Structure formats: structure tokens, C-alpha cells
């Protein structure tokens, strides 16, 4: 069972990462889906998406949950029936979930040079003129994207823009963490973010700080 990594962030927050190596049939063993999720997975044309979907149910099982414990709101955000917060991510052959008593978000991205072409759509490129080389720039931009994607999942409000409303504080790779701020509709909120890199992928996860707005 390729549970790739488990991270205990704090007493209330835990991350589970799966490396998807098994065939769909193997991943389906021991997993009972709701009718809604059966229809979802049956409608997926991509085999890796089908396998990823099932691997997430194994991650939930690692955390003590079954598919019936999960539901989605009108904006597509996942929730657990017991009130615990959950966020889900899938990229190629890796999937992950984070569970917490706090509002949380997680994102996994494969590091690819295509991010250079879209960078100016989600972050001011002028901020990265001191980055040593293209490889380092791809690493940094992937972390920034993952942080903003995680926050977008947490915030879950239409109209929130990556470039306009979410700011990620600059960071050193060795720190493996940073902070971020959202300024949207006159409200400020603050986030703690952590990241890790493995096998050409980047995983970023974070949670909302409890401090009050500085306004």
C-alpha cells in the first residue's frame, strides 16, 4: 500500500500523501462509494483520474473516514460530516489530503517549465529577479502557485483572484515555509504555509491564522 508520507503538522492537523501505483481494480478493493461518487468515478475518462479518486478514499481510510463521511457544498468544496476540515489534491500519480480543526488547504503540482509562461497571471514576475537560475525560478513559482491554490480552496469565495488578492511572502527554499495574506472585499486574512518537494513534485499546504485583521 503506497502511503507515501504522513505529516503531523500539529496536534490538530495531519497531511496524508499517496503515490498512485496500483491499478484501478486493486484500489477499488475494500472501498464502498456513495451512489454520487460511483457516478463520478464511472464518468471519468482518464484512468489516472479514476485511480487518483480511489486513492483519496484510501487516504481518508488512513485518517479513519469512509466515503460516506464526505460531502461537497455548492461551490465544490469538500467537507466532513463531523465538522473536521478537509482539503484534497491530485496531480498525476500523487494525491494528498489534509485534515484539521482549522480551515486548511492543500495542493500538489508537478514542477514543469510551462509555469514560466503563465507566471505573470498569478504573481508579479518582477519580484523574482534575484532568483539564481531557471530551475530555481520554476521551483519558486510552483511553490507560490501551490500556496495560492491552497488558499483559494480555503477561502472558497467566487471572484478571489490569484494575482489581485493573494500575496505570498518571499521565502528561502531551506525554510520550507512562508506566510500569505488575502485582501478581498475590504477584508484581510492571514495564512501559514508549508511546502515540501519530492520526485519532481511540490506539495504546499496551509491554514488560516486566527489573528484579527490589521485594518
TrEMBL record:
Keywords, alphabetical: Transferase
Residue intervals of the 4'-phosphopantetheinyl transferase domain: 104-194
Transmembrane segments: none
Keyword Transferase (UniProt): yes
InterPro entries linked: 4-PPantetheinyl_Trfase_dom (IPR008278), 4-PPantetheinyl_Trfase_dom_sf (IPR037143)
Domain of life according to the entry: Bacteria
Pfam families: ACPS
Residue runs in coiled coils: none
Molecular function GO labels: holo-[acyl-carrier-protein] synthase activity; magnesium ion binding
Protein's recorded name: 4-phosphopantetheinyl transferase
